[in-house]
Amino acid sequence: VSKVDKTIEIVGFSPQQRELYITKYFEGLPYCDNALKLIKECEYLFSHCYSPVMCRLVCFLYETVLEMGGKSLPSTLTTVFLKFVQQTMQNQESLATLARVAWYFGEKHQSAMKSDHLPSKEVKEFALKYGFFLPFAFPRPSDSGEEEFGSTFSDFVIQNFLCALHLTLAEDIKDKSLTKYLSFPSKKKKPYNWSDLVPRFLAGLLFLQDDAYFCSLSNKDVKQSTKKQKTLLKYFKRLQINELCPERLLELLHCTYETQSNYLLQHVALRLKPDLSFLGVVLTPPDVHVLHSILKRSRKEFSLDLRNSSIDRLKDLVGLKNVTSFRASLSDTVRLWKSLEQTKDYELLRASTEKFVLDPFKAKTVKDVSDLSDLVEMQEKMINCVQDASGCSSYEIPAIKNLRKLEFALGPVCGLQGFLKLVEILAAFPSLQHLDLDALSENGIGDEGAKSLSEVFPTLTSLETLNLSQNKITDVGAEKLATALPSLSSLKTLSLYNNSICDFGAENLAKVLPVMASLRVLDVQYNKITGVGAQQLTDSLRKCPHIKNLVMWNPTIPYGVLEHLQQLDSRISV
Fold this sequence. Notes:
Residues 158-266 form the NACHT LRR and PYD domain. It comes from Sula dactylatra (Masked booby). One of its GO terms (biological process) is positive regulation of MHC class I biosynthetic process. Keywords: Leucine-rich repeat, Repeat. By secondary structure, the protein is α/β, with parallel strands linked by helices. Among the domains are: 1-73, no CATH class; 404-574, Ribonuclease Inhibitor (Leucine-rich repeat, LRR (right-handed beta-alpha superhelix), Alpha-Beta Horseshoe), CATH 3.80.10. The chain has 25 helices and 14 strands. It has helices at residues 15-25, 32-41, 43-47, 52-67, 77-85, 92-107, 121-129, 156-169, 198-206, 212-217, 222-238, 246-259, 262-270, 285-295, 314-318, 330-342, 346-355, 366-390, 398-401, 415-423, 446-454, 475-484, 503-512, 531-541, 559-568, and strands spanning 112-114, 133-137, 149-153, 275-277, 302-306, 323-328, 361-363, 405-408, 434-436, 465-467, 493-495, 521-523, 549-551, 572-573. Helix 1 (15-25) runs parallel beside helix 4 (52-67) and helix 18 runs parallel beside helix 20. The longest helix is centred in the middle third of the chain and has 25 residues, at 366-390. It is elongated, with a radius of gyration of 32 Å. It starts with 14 loop residues before the first helix and ends with a strand.
């Protein structure tokens, strides 16, 4: 496929499945007892094993390393692949030719080829012998009964590595043209998306000048290889790291990690902005590993936004001392805290709760409300264990205690169901100042939702803004609200815009306005109030010097009546 918007691997290996696969792969081999232990010791390579394809490849590469007499895995993908190709020491010319073939077909977005497309029979035999190729049967043409056989690269990662090797060794590719093969040239253009891993391998290879085997591969023109490294180094130094989007920043981190250059790693770490957002970007285990590795090199303090990132190694990032605050999906956060509670890691449990940020929070699905409920429930469970660890007499999760703005936007289908569940936990947020139920899709909590909310008003002592616009509230709901509104001692703004409130509802609101000393703005526009209800609100307004604005244009109020009322009191808006 020449152009792909996004590739998603829906199901990956869990940590337990990784271990099981590796154990089964080496079952019956002489080194099966130590294989899992040694692969896990190389955390970066083990992190790639979340992908079934990469897990098989890591096992295959490690098996090759062991057969060559090695006892441990190198620390990066580049060095482990270089270790793999060392078995071809006597066939360097064939390797260079194969690298050219990989690049040629890669540019055509192909991995399979017919035998007559290869330079020689020797190259094909070489590639099959060392595992670069697998036999491949091409689809049978409709006008012929014969099946045609050829070869395909055994893995897209192997083809990517060979492409990078070609770019490094080829004399016809000048040092200044290398940068266009990286994945972060601009925000608008990514022309080489068929070769996602090439930039990482390219960066890694160009910083392997001290590797004896690599030097033997590139000894034809050591100066040219050094020039290419310097060009890449200059490019990295000129990059405006703060302006990279999250995806490009991650790619830069991977490329930098593959170089294992202390200078480059420190250079990037020091230029990361303090507020790093990966909102909506899926963070794979390798992403988390390189991010963690580079963050801990920096002396800066960081705030991370990891919401909707499907992260499964949240503990690694949250545990960094220079990560002072983080946002993450509630389900991921609660899962982390439950895990820390089970392992009795109370110190990190307390530290992570203090770093967690919730404000502002927007509930868009029933699951969001359920997750928020789980968070409140988690606080109740945590009180005892954190007390035991810290010796304090009481404990509140700061994120819950400090939540000031809560938006609710579930829409009409699940609006009432979700809101009734939300009301049950509202009392857990003592600092809540802004509750907003005005959504474009309309939540439609109706009178039942209004009644349920009014019952918890006495607990919302900090609430300053209540927006109940567009929720299908009638006089019944307005009466319930009006009865309880005086208990909102801090309320400054109340919006009931675009509901179905008539004169009876307006009358009930008018009765309580004088006792709502903190109220400054009331919006009852686009309801079904007539001139009668408007007059009652105006009469009440005279007793309310504290109110600054009453917005009550309604299509059912004759214009002349509303204009007259506005002349009586300039605080009325039309």
